[in-house]
Specification:
Radius of gyration: 19 Å
Number of domains: 1
Structural class: mainly alpha
Strand content: under 5%
Largest sheet: none
Order of helices and strands: HHHH
CATH architecture: Orthogonal Bundle
CATH topology: Cytochrome Bc1 Complex, Chain D, domain 2
Helix content: 55-70%
Oligomer: single chain
Distance between the termini: 61 Å
Length: 104
C-alpha cells in the first residue's frame, strides 16, 4: 500500500513539474502583452500605430524583432534575439501587435 501511495505522489509530482515546464516554455498572450507594455509601447504606441507595418509577412516581422532594423532615421529597432527573446516569443509579440493595431 505504501508503495502505491509513493508511486502516486511521484507521478503527480512529475505531472506538475511537466506542466510548469510546458507553461514556462510556451509564450502566452499575457507574456506578449507584458513585453509590449514594457519594451515596445514607447516607440510603437498604445495601439501599435507607429513604425509597425502589419502588412508585412509574419516571418519578416518576427525576423525584425529578433535581428532588429535600422531605418533611415533613428530610433533603431533593437535586436531582441540578442537579449534572449525566442522566435516563439517574437511570434506571440507580432500577433499581439497585429491585434492591437486592428482593434477599434
Amino acid at each position: 500500500m505504501k508503495t502505491i501511495k509513493i508511486m502516486t505522489i511521484v507521478i503527480l509530482a512529475a505531472l506538475v513539474a511537466a506542466s510548469v515546464i510546458v507553461s514556462a516554455a510556451s509564450p502566452t498572450a499575457d507574456d506578449a502583452a507584458t513585453t509590449y507594455k514594457t519594451k515596445c509601447v514607447a516607440c510603437h504606441g498604445q495601439k501599435a500605430e507607429k513604425k509597425f507595418d502589419s502588412s508585412l509577412p509574419d516571418e519578416q516581422l518576427i525576423d525584425i524583432v529578433l535581428k532588429g532594423k535600422k531605418p533611415e532615421k533613428p530610433p533603431n529597432m533593437p535586436a531582441y534575439g540578442e537579449k534572449g527573446v525566442t522566435a516563439e516569443q517574437a511570434k506571440a509579440l507580432v500577433e499581439h501587435m497585429k491585434q492591437l493595431k486592428s482593434a477599434p
